[in-house]
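Translate sequence into C-alpha cells.
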Amino acid sequence: MLLTKIPTGILKNDPDRYLEIDVGEGEDYEYGFHRMEIVRTRKSRHCLRGQNEHASGTYMIKETALVDGKAATCYLCIPCADRYLAFEDGEEDERGDEINPHNYFCDGTRRDVPRPVGL
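Result follows.
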C-alpha cells in the first residue's frame, strides 16, 4: 500500500519508522527475502505482539519473510507498533517505567496487572 493512502490520524509516527521495526527483535534468522509494509487487512488477523484478533479492514504492519528456508508472515497492530517505537525512543508509561512492548495487550492494558479470580 502506498503510504500516502493511509488516512491521517491512524499513525502517530513517520510511516517509514513503522517499516523499520524489528519484529523478530534481533533473532538470528537467515532471511532469504524480507518485506515490511503497512496494509489494510482483507480478513481478521492476529497481532503477533498483543495477541488480539483484529477485524478485517484494520491497518496493520505486515512482515513477510523467508525465514530459515520457510515462508512466514506475521502482523503487528498499529498500537503495538507505536509501543515499539516509544520503547526505542525511551518513553515512560503512566507509572514512570520505560515502555516495554511485551508488557501490553493490543488495547493498551498491561499484562502484569492481576486479573480478578474467577473471571
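Note: The helical segments are 15-18, 78-88.
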